[in-house]
Amino acid sequence: MPCMDDVKLQFEGTSDVRSVSARRIPSQLEVGEGPRWDPHLQEWTCIDISTGGFFVGLESGSPAVTFPAPLGCTARHVSGAVLGACRDGLYSWDGITPPAKFAHLPTPLKQLNDGRCDAMGRWWIGGVGLGDDDGCLMRLDLDGSLEVVAGGYALPNGIDWFAEAGVMLHADSYSRRIFAYDFDLESGCVENRRVWWQGTKDDGLPDGLCIADDGTVWVAFWGGHVVRQLDSTGSTIRELRTPMSQPSSVTFGGPSGSQMFITSAWADLEPSERAEQPWAGDGMVIEGLGRSNGDADCLVPITALSSSRLDG
Q: Residue 152's domain spans which residues?
């Protein structure tokens, strides 16, 4: 990622139509995902699902580490280790030795996908099933146990919480839905799943999402050329038109929490489409659209990672 370019993006909403400046991060990732502000490193991080690469810093052209299997998402352990959710299990990387597996999956899956830690440090991870609608939502609990807590997903994706309302949102891309659950922070229990947002084929697929401090929900829509800001009921407030057709995830962070980081992908694009979308696979950083440091203190606290590592 040797350089950064500025571009003006069209921002359309109920009360304004204007342009905003975005910094291009020319990363060219096949499936860029998982943007997170890392308070341990004071850097942005992201992943390439296809290669298993974990990237640190906006100007890094090479991954800090490559996990041994396709990578769905990462989290940070209280020790500073990076945890990776891979197709064959959960791994821990201490920054020195190769990533080591510390948990097997509770059920056979095709791929792990997006995930996030709640305020207690539980790690919630989506799993893509072997058949249609066999996907699931898993939880790495505070005692180190990994279990399936919900099923019936086509392609589980972005996840975040309305903390004060006790509600968790979780996207299911292929069904074009975002589900809401009643969520209890103390116990980690979820119940009463219902459809919070339902899209159509014209919307694109809801992918990664985040909830800003003002309670609005930002969602990247794969195939839609757009990141949408939704209110607490799921109604669209504004749309940010992106130069890449496959924005894959969005979150806030940075030193003051005011930077928006959007990832994207070039996977599945025809050569002609890639030529028309030079930003496909790149990241973007935008200032001034919102604020959140919700991920900053979300560290996985499970103990004895080293003693729980598995062979194979």
A: 5-308
